Amino acid sequence: MYNIWWFFTSYLRSVLKWFLRRTTGLCELQRICYGEVSGAPRISAVEKSLNLSKSPQIKKLIAYLNDVSDNLRLKGSTEREILKGAVSTVLLVKRINPRIHFQFVKNFSKCVEQIWGYRQLLAEVESLRNIKFDSNNLEHEAKLLQLWEALMPSVELDNRISKQWQDIGFQGDDPKTDFRGMGLLGLENLLFFATEYRMPAQHVLSHSHHPVYGYCFAIVGINLTSMALHLLRSGDAKTYFYNTSKCLPSIRLFHQFYSYLFYEFDRYWLECKPVDIMQFSNIKLKFENNIRTSLMDTNAVFKINVSVDTV
């Protein structure tokens, strides 16, 4: 039954594309780049169209771009050459005159940059997650101490191994054990939130010390790193990145997405008025579902809604 339905919809789509091409003089990609608003609506539609293409040349181009982004090669002058080559391939396959359709070239190039920039970002984030926190690594240790200084600027840390770490929400005397699941990514997320959004982070930290609704700031933060990564992997986060990124998506943009999740989760947690920390899993699941629902709106743009927002 599924195969029959797939055949029917595929055939119908081909007939519709042929009809629209004959009546408008434009291929599907042109109609999307001219007709859809910029950002997620246009980029997502281009992405879907490319993935459904039956053209051998387009399929080969997609495989090439996947390999480039998976190996983090979409950068600098190389990026410009790759984008130029991708656009040239599509112009040739679709028989589009770039001198007449120069706006298509511009719009389509932007879409390609965002689609495979997102894929490259995922590879970069995964790579960071796979780096284990190493207490013998001076750079890792420096970042950990920067986190303390950002969150507790008026309190001096007595020792590297200290119960004081529990004041910012780590489980024991040494934070390194809490980074096992998310690796260096968990630390860099926390550090970015604490330094780039200093006032919101202090605001959230104060809530984590609430006598009734308190929680472990750092542990919750690492859990939210996991959530942000899952949203990135599943593609749900594409709405955010496609609507926010002005150029090739960067790791900084992922940190900003994480910071938004942390700030909003804290607000949602307090709204739920949990009886105890044992309700964390259920509340986190509901919050994640709410975020997924929000991301289904292709026009959605997420920002930390405070006066010090620097996004």
Automatic annotation (TrEMBL):
<protein>
    <recommendedName>
        <fullName>ELMO domain-containing protein</fullName>
    </recommendedName>
</protein>
<feature type="domain" description="ELMO">
    <location>
        <begin position="139"/>
        <end position="295"/>
    </location>
</feature>
<dbReference type="InterPro" id="IPR006816">
    <property type="entry name" value="ELMO_dom"/>
</dbReference>
<dbReference type="Pfam" id="PF04727">
    <property type="entry name" value="ELMO_CED12"/>
</dbReference>
<dbReference type="InterPro" id="IPR050868">
    <property type="entry name" value="ELMO_domain-containing"/>
</dbReference>
